[in-house]
Amino acid sequence: MTATNEAQRTSVRSEPIDVKALRHPTEPSRFALAAACTLSGLAVVVVWLARLDLPMLFAAVIGLAIVMALIWGALQITRVRILGDAVLVTAQTLPDLQQAVDEVRDRVGYHRRVDIFVVPKLTTPAELTSYFGVRVLLLEGGAVADITALAKRPQLLFLLGTFFGALKAKHDRWAVVEFLIENAGLRKILAPFVGPWLRATVYTGDRIAYACSRDLGTSLDAVFRTLVGKELSPQLQTAGLIKQAQRVRNSLILRFSQLFRSVPHATNRFLHLLRFAQQVQPDSVAAFRAALPERTTVSLDNALARAARDEQRRVGAAVVTCLAVAVGLLLMYGALATGDAQEAAPIPPVPTPTAEATVTPAQVLISAVPASLGGSCEEISNPQVQTVGLAVAVRCYGGTLQAADLVDVYQFDSYANMSAATDSLLGGLGSGACVDGLRGTWTDANNNERGTLACFTSLTAESVAVWTIDDEAILIMASDPGMGLPELYGWWQLAAPASLHT
Hints:
four-stranded mixed beta sheet
């Protein structure tokens, strides 16, 4: 290679990279999904905290602060331990490696703090982690030693570019929320919604890394080194890897397992890298394809076509679904909390007759209604039934989601007046079962007929149950807009007759 060609190549590599143009096509929509679902989940948590009473809320905040302090302390100790046991990459310790890092940072335009350490042994050639907001990139010394040489430096640029490219794709705009998710225990719950965006940023990082190396062979060599290590990478057969990648893509179990990962399968990264190279350097991919067996090229073409289709997928429906589920949870929680508050409200004691106090007819009638309603009853002066012979009327309000919303109780001075009011209220309702919206009779546990039982749907779409206690000249009407007739009848069987005729 001439000095002129080398200078031109160096000039190309030193040019700033347009990260925005290299973003993976699915990244924006997947970010919308992650943001919508994560913020919805946090909203549910905030609403739950807001429902706590002041002592419990104070204890929760103190507990969370203590946990965060302990985590911070543990992470700081771990980071200091790395500083003592590994080599921090600087211009004074490893100048060639630091020069490559600076080059990638400049081209990507990412200058936030990232501490880079070289360690003797890792499960992978490189590993990115975070210690309470301080990002740390660990490099295995044996894995990167030979690629720091000038001849293999493009592989080093590719390796560094994958990490700094992914960081640039995130641009740390998600760092605070991601930290809260991780330490609030929500990360695993929201993994299927946050994971797709994190995997898309990895694909973006691979694209940026390719732009750093500008060479398909160099990029694939770096990928192979990551997959099997530097010793075996020269022996890795591309045809077999393509076949394995196809098998991974066609496996439903492997695709499902990827839902909970923040990084895609390595074979998927390999295919998406080839797909990107096909877009920006089609001649390189054509030469790569020509060197493969004919049967393998068919598999490769199918894989690249599928990768192209993946780039067109959007998750708009998933965003709407996530928001709808969150709103539903908030509404359900609000309804349950309201119901629990009403149910937990103290029920004032029913006045008992004393020498100094006189018990009113309304108080006597209230003492006969179901216990769950007695504390909410009050005398009314505007009854909804015929008032001839009406002695007293009270209205009770349902205290739980399982009770009827309104229950009106009327006592007449005679059976005849009560029966007339019942006939006037029910009108021409036919004979039959209550659950069918008809009129019949009901019996007590001893099979004694006690009175009339009828059910119907009012003009305002409320379910209404009407029954009488004939020997006491009592008429009761219960209504609820949220119950169906079978539900109202079920409540009546459990609560009303047993309480009112004992």
